[in-house]
Amino acid sequence: MFDSRSSFAASPDPDRGIMQRAYRAWAPAYDLICGGLFASSRRRVVALASTAGRRVLEIGVGTGLSLGDYEADMEVTGIDASEAMIARAHRRAQLIASAEIRSLSVMDAENLSFPDGRFDAVVAQFLITLVEKPERVLDEAWRVVRPGGALFLLNHFRSKNPHVAGFETRIAPLLHHVGLRPDFPFDRIEDWAADQTGITSISRIPSGPMGCFSIVRIGKAAG
Ligand SMILES: C[S@@+](CC[C@H](N)C(=O)[O-])C[C@H]1O[C@@H](n2cnc3c(N)ncnc32)[C@H](O)[C@@H]1O
Fold it and tell me: Is the pTM of this model over 0.90?
């Protein structure tokens, strides 16, 4: 049995300035590199989020690769810290979104300007490992989920296989400057969840090529 709470020390949480620069650089090529490979996992998350209700917030929406996956009766709000990524999300929304896109704005996921309980579902795809304060982002996402709603994460987390985890730990410093972080342990999510009240369930489903991503659903008690 492999133990993810292993002796590997995870890389430090990313620096905000490095992430801003990285995603300004990524923006023009992002869809080409990250579009197809992750598409089926993104669709699964959108389908799951839709079961929580109509009003969805995507934090770290990026270029809006999921916007075309929401059904017409959905109301989607997106935020991202990068102007360059949000500019592309605007273009995509005009071209392909069938859902009602309420707003797409530059905002820090650590400080959401929405009232408590505003959304049926909050979706964070390939974000939580890249923010300066992951627990703060989880707190904020959780705050704006309504009672009875759910928070959905899609991400790669550090492998439970110690050989793979060792490799991920070694390459993490090299990938830091391009805005990637392969060695973020799932324990951080579990530890955060253990400190919350009102979590009804937490599930983790493998997804993507060789199950290397996880879809995480964290349900909020109905009040
Ligand atoms: C790997 S991309 C994922 C984009 C999109 N969710 C997707 O699946 O294609 C990470 C995104 O998170 C954004 N990001 C990083 N830190 C952020 C923060 N503190 N608040 C909001 N967005 C942030 C980046 O600008 C980037 O667009």
Answer: yes
